Amino acid sequence: MTSSASADLTRLLFDGRYEQSHKDLHDLLLDPVFDPREGLDMTEAGKLAYERSRAVHGALETPRQILADPWRLFALAEWPSLVDVSTFSLLMVHYNLAFGTVLEHGDREDTKDLVDELDRLDSFSPYMATELGYGNNVAALRTEAVYDPATETFVLNTPDALAQKYMSYSGFRDIPKLAVVMARLKADGKDHGVFPFLVRISDGTALCEGVHAAPCPEKPVQGLDNGLTWFDHVRVPRRNLLHGDMGGFGEDGVFRPASGNQRKRFLRAMNRILPGRLCVSSAATGAGRAAVYVALRYAVQRLTNAPGRNDLPIIEYRSHQLALFTALARTYAMTLLLNHAKREFTSVPPNAVPAELNHLVSITKALSTWEMTDVIAVCRERCGAQGIFSVNRIADYGSLLQGLVTAEGDNQVLLATTAGQIIAAGEADPEPAAVTDPHGRDLRDAGFLVSAVRHREQELLRRARTAMSDDSVDRTYFEAWNATINTGLEMARARGVRTALECMAEAAETARTEESRTALGLLTALYGLTEVGRDAGWYLANGVLTAGQVEELAAQTDALCADLLPHVQTIVDGFGLTPELLRAPIAADDYVSAFQARTGAHGPSAAPAEADANVNANVNADADSGAGEGERA
């Protein structure tokens, strides 16, 4: 394949916006401030993440300008985590969740000094919504802000242990923090629901009066200052209420909420969560692509034995191909699905998000972070012992994904909520949808694969609606939902997979070179067959596949791997990554020398086949499946 094909794949993966939105972020990561630093403890690593966040802020346009361009925000979410997963977390909390909330609901003349302080990053802004006892039910949070008309201040208080703010960045007291705190606004004896407030947490020397914090236990890799935070009658000026169009104080000093119920106002106050889910998915797919890039570059150099041969790159083994090429296909699928969700999000006014878009973004967030969690785990395993070391990045990406599946809505809860909304939005069809006759159909045909997954999605939806509307049994709504929830989850997942397949097929059709079109067609088929194979029994039982097609699945995926092998280098070149950017020794052109340089070893200069002693690896015990497939590092 040619470089023009790689450029075409880059165009598709970055939705034609690489030069406009991504390239300077790529180049910024080459700065020495992002060079690996060995021997740091968790606190030092956390402080370094703050230093790197300031470097990113100083090199780019202001947060206000970035928030004005969602594509730029999504790009910012995608790149820094490739070299420091903690920097991603700090930037996204400050830019999207906290400062985004300030601009949407509190960008007024009387708050200009506070807004400018955050725009300059003079202070970092934690986002304090989740409470210890209400992790998946933020609307029920208990932190309260009681208005005192005599002083025109709110008294912010944590009423009990369950109401402590949980996981927010409050541990480093020598870093100025001006947080967005979600609290229950109470005025004139009435509870008006949850509103955001700007609250100074620390002034750069110590926590502010009445603010208390305790560190959370350490997390692997990420040394950030997550903590428990609680408030003891902290006075907050009235102007620090970020009420936006959700209410306000009249000339008589009385607070009046906007029309609508508390739930509606709460969702309005939390509206940065939706773009936040796209930011989370951007980080996940970026990490997934980087993990596949590292694993495949290593697989080309890593030597193993084979029947009749002593030195064979491990990429030649079909078992290794199946694992990594499937990961490659899933990474392309999730990237293209995410691009589709981003386009849909940016095409509607921020305050007029239709239910269908909310469903798409939520499904994309859950599916992409789950898929990339699996992709990264596969890549780590396929790199053997080298995959364990942080210096080779993949293990760090695994830690990142453990946070992303929970961030901006725990995946299981988010997908179940979305499934429930989809099920409730229509009536049950009395009869199953017609099945396309599978006899004689090509298992590689994208149209056939899309129709198969669509049928599963529609049939699961029909069954879920039928089950929920069944009044022949005396049961509560919860009992009905509890008996349906797993069908709903599978339906919502199938919708995401079907949409991703459609995006892949469309990308293949719009590819501009024969090489990129061929590569995308193969990736589409591999992703589709992998998904159909996941539930092959269901497809067989429902007449979507024949028994012969089910038996043929394994052979077809093997054949796709063989067909993909000549194209893999160009496919990963489409990621826009380089060994110089990732600084992962096993992704270098000479990984043995690079690994020795990073470990300080001074072994003999040797070809990879002679380098076993230098890296202390005997990986015959770490062999893939297949006779004689013991690896040598």
Topology of helices and strands:
Layout: H1 3-13, H2 18-28, H3 42-59, H4 63-67, H5 70-78, H6 85-106, H7 112-119, E1 127-128, E2 144-148, E3 153-157, E4 165-169, E5 177-187, E6 190-202, E7 211-215, E8 226-231, E9 234-237, E10 247-249, E11 255-257, H8 262-269, H9 273-301, E12 303-306, E13 309-313, H10 318-346, H11 355-382, H12 394-404, H13 411-424, H14 446-469, H15 477-482, H16 485-510, H17 514-534, H18 536-541, H19 547-564, H20 568-573, H21 579-582, H22 591-599
Parallel strand pairs: 1-5, 2-5
Antiparallel strand pairs: 2-3, 3-9, 4-8, 5-6, 7-8, 10-11, 12-13
Which characteristics define this entry?
alpha+beta, 633 residues, disordered C terminus, single chain, 3-stranded antiparallel sheet, globular
What does this structure look like?
- This protein is of the alpha+beta class and 633 residues long.
- Helix content is 51%, strand content 11%.
- Strands 1, 2, 3, 5, 6 and 9 form a six-stranded mixed beta sheet that branches. It has a three-stranded antiparallel beta sheet with strand order 4-8-7, with no helix packed on it. Strands 10-11 form a two-stranded antiparallel sheet.
- β12 (303-306) and β13 form a beta hairpin.
- Residues 606-633 have low confidence and may be disordered.
